[in-house]
């Protein structure tokens, strides 16, 4: 079993059973104890599970550092309320997008595409949704495992979405939206241009910050879901530029 498949299987099991032992995961994945320990260490560092003595456990909302958990959960709920049965949607990587995926379990007949292993792991075989994992090299970001690369871009050229949802790492009036991983730029640029409705999910802690790679101006994405902590200068900017803002 390759590392990506193994870690997805581990994450699926932990999310379903709340916790797991190293020995049990070793048997599940037909891997050595040492290999599983390395997987759990890496996944713990990425923030997608909590490593414990002798195993690991599922991350609960109470485990996510304040002050972001309430805002991220509320933003995810707003995003989930916009999705209709039968739609083809894209969900990006990050904690807010993972929370959105968790909130879709009661929806019906969705066609979900994602680059996020964390997002894909939220849906079981009997969820009633079609889940498509875009391929590419595995990127181990902060709190997320994502598949990105030339193969991802090639697949995307053949796809069109009803709605897309993704997060950013920084939002600034002068420098626009920015992300920490420049490999995401071709992905997000395609999504912005090839969907009916595109949404950025960003809690107010992202505003007034600038990350490594510029994506586009704040007027480059027509819909933003954020929380009431956002500064008034950003609300004025969005209003002036005709950007739809949904606030928690």
Total DSSP E strands:
15
CATH topology label of the largest domain: Rossmann fold
Mean pLDDT: 88
What is the gyration radius calculated from CA atoms? 18 Å
Write the layout of secondary structure elements.
Blueprint: H1 3-17, E1 19-21, H2 22-29, H3 33-45, E2 50-52, E3 55-57, H4 69-81, E4 88-91, H5 95-102, E5 111-114, H6 117-120, E6 130-133, E7 137-141, E8 144-148, H7 150-156, E9 161-167, E10 170-172, E11 176-179, H8 185-193, E12 195-201, E13 213-216, E14 223-226, H9 232-240, E15 244-247
Parallel strand pairs: 4-5, 4-9, 5-6, 9-12, 12-14, 14-15
Antiparallel strand pairs: 1-3, 2-3, 7-8, 10-11, 11-13
Descriptive key words:
248 residues; alpha/beta; Arc Repressor Mutant, subunit A; Rossmann fold; 2 domains; seven-stranded parallel β-sheet; three-stranded antiparallel β-sheet; 9 helices; 15 strands; globular
Written description of the protein model:
The mean pLDDT is 88. This protein is 35% helix and 26% strand. α2 packs across α3 (33-45) and α4 (69-81) crosses α5. It starts with a helix and ends with a strand. The chain contains nine helices and 15 strands. It has two domains: 3-59, Arc Repressor Mutant, subunit A, CATH 1.10.10; 69-247, Rossmann fold (3-Layer(aba) Sandwich), CATH 3.40.50.1360. It has a seven-stranded parallel beta sheet with strand order 6-5-4-9-12-14-15, sandwiched between helices. It has a three-stranded antiparallel beta sheet with strand order 1-3-2. Strands 10-11-13 form a three-stranded antiparallel beta sheet, with helices on one face. It is α/β, with parallel strands linked by helices. A hairpin with a 3-residue loop joins β10 (170-172) and β11 (176-179).
């Amino acid at each position: 079993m390759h590392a990506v498949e193994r870690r997805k299987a581990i994450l699926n099991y932990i999310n379903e059973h709340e916790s797991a032992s190293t020995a049990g995961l070793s048997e599940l994945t037909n891997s050595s104890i040492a290999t599983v320990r390395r997987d759990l260490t890496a996944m713990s560092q990425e923030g997608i599970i909590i490593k414990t003595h002798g195993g690991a456990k599922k991350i609960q909302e109470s485990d996510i550092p304040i002050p972001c958990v309430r805002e991220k959960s509320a933003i995810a709920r707003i995003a989930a309320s916009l999705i209709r049965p039968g739609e083809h949607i894209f969900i990006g990587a990050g904690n807010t997008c993972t929370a959105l995926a968790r909130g879709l379990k009661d929806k019906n007949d969705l066609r979900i595409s994602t680059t996020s292993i964390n997002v894909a792991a939220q849906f079981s075989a009997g969820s009633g949704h079609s889940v498509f994992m875009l391929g590419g090299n595995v990127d181990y970001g902060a709190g997320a495992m994502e598949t990105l690369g030339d193969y991802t871009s090639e697949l995307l050229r053949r796809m069109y979405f009803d709605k897309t949802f993704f997060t950013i790492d920084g939002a600034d009036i002068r420098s626009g939206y920015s992300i920490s991983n420049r490999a995401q730029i071709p992905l997000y640029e395609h999504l912005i241009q090839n969907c009916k409705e595109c949404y950025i999910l960003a809690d107010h802690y992202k505003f007034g910050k600038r990350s490594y790679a510029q994506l586009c101006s704040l007027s480059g994405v027509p819909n933003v879901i954020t929380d009431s902590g956002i500064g008034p200068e950003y609300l004025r900017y969005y209003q002036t530029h005709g950007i739809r803002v949904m606030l928690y």
